[in-house]
Design brief:
By secondary structure, the protein is α+β, with helices and mostly antiparallel strands. It has one domain (about 5-90). It contains 2 helices and 4 strands, in the order βββααβ. It starts with a strand and ends with a strand.
Length: about 90
């Protein structure tokens, strides 16, 4: 079962018999707090769909942004000044 607390950026996910917790942020802000990072993520995703079709995944259906545009976003987001960080919590 995957649970999340959007205001804190903490996610829990069971792995085997142990639970793994991770905290993530965009540009140092928890998700849902930095509107500018969210706007850039949405804009760059749209540009990736429109301009980077040759680097998009061959998968079809309902996909997450990472599954659909992962490689394109890995190039676009740092160029747009967005950094994503993930920290494992013990």
């Amino acid at each position: 079962m995957l649970g999340s607390a959007p205001s804190s950026g903490v996610q829990s996910r069971p792995v085997g018999s142990d639970a793994t917790r991770r905290r993530w942020s965009a540009n140092g802000c928890p998700p849902g707090i930095c509107a500018s990072a969210t706007a850039v993520l949405l804009g760059e995703s749209g540009l990736a769909l429109a301009l980077d079709r040759d680097t998009l995944s061959d998968l079809r259906g309902v996909l997450t942004p990472a599954a659909a545009m992962g490689d394109a976003l890995l190039n676009r987001l740092p160029a747009a000044g967005v950094t994503l960080e993930v920290e494992r919590l013990e």
